[in-house]
Amino acid sequence: MPGFQFLGGDYGRGRLESALAEPQQTFDGRFLYRTVFDKAAALFRSLIEDHPLLDGNKRLALTSVAVFLALNGYIFYIPRDKAVAFTLQVAAGEKDIHWKEISRWLRRSSISVESLRKSEAGAMKRLNVPPEAVRYLRELVRIITRERNVLVHKPREGRIGT
Questions:
Q1: How confident is the model at residue 75 (pLDDT cuts 50, 70, 90)?
Q2: Measuring CA to CA, which of 32, 33, 76, 141 is 20 to 30 A from 101?
Q3: Cα–Cα distances in angstroms (integers) from residue 42 to residues 19, 60, 65, 132, in the given order
Q4: Domain ranges of the chain
Q5: What is the DSSP letter of 128?
Q6: What CATH class has 10-151?
Q7: pLDDT 10s digits, 100-109
């Protein structure tokens, strides 16, 4: 079986596209999910609940959220067992976890790249990062900073259309 296979072909592809569009939903001209963490929470929950893949929906949701937050200047850092437990709780739908609760969980488990650069020791302590992971996070900050400069378009002031 391939690593990722759509559930039911085009049906699964449509569910994936729907889940990916969820963070951009609007009502009356306003975004339903206003913060980066709200959008990440909507993405996370939609990928799990819409179940677009035959297998790997929870892994896709966690990975997508980590990448989404990184592209928006945040590092999502949480011990694997806690991430898995929360993801399984959302997937089980036992208490139908609201996206706002997921948003709070993501916010508590993330640190901005800027905060990390300004006060690395404080940020590492807040996230309870073990000393052996500090080098990994430093490298991640370097990569995110470099990639964001490539991916984020910053138009020049006073120039339209360039």
A1: confident
A2: 141
A3: 8, 14, 10, 32
A4: 10-151
A5: T
A6: mainly alpha
A7: 999 999 999 9
